[in-house]
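chain below, 99 aa
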Amino acid sequence: GNSVCGIGNNVTLVFENMDFGENGASTLTICGKALHEVNNIRLLTEWEDGRKEQDSLEFFHTEAPSEAVFKIAPKCGKAKISFVFLPGSAFDFDWFCFR
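prediction:
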């Protein structure tokens, strides 16, 4: 339905044309279920002007879908966002929200 389930090593979810506006975002909430003790996720941001940024996120084990809130590098303007699941991942991704 609304989730991406069974995410493993080196899977990337890409979201084009994200617009953070002028006020931007400095936190990211992810809702999902992490089957391993720690699931390492790279948040890649590719700005329209070619700049690239990376945030490292650790989503810890959960038995059921849970929310985790991460402090991230501030984001303003338009960008492509990629969630890269690193080796050792076993994750079910429900949703995300920038604030």
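Strands lie at 4-7, 11-19, 25-34, 38-47, 52-60, 66-75, 78-85, 91-98. The longest strand covers residues 25-34.
thats it, cya
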